[in-house]
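Example record used in the benchmark description.
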Amino acid sequence: MLFLIVFGTACYTIFHLKSTPVRIAAVLLAMGSLTAAMAPIIRILAEPAAAPVAAYATLTPIAPPVLDGRAAEEK
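Model output (structure tokens):
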């Protein structure tokens, strides 16, 4: 987004300038600004992606419910 804003502003400014030396200076300034705007974008894209952490649930055995006294005595 930053790149597009700088590029659009540079194009608008260069189109409306009348003097050739000022246009050349504006083009050089725009190229420098676009290069500076691309540096953070390239830095973000060059970072290695973090490995996704898999969510897991630990399985714990659940004792069956005691329905009568006989199941509790068998243990």
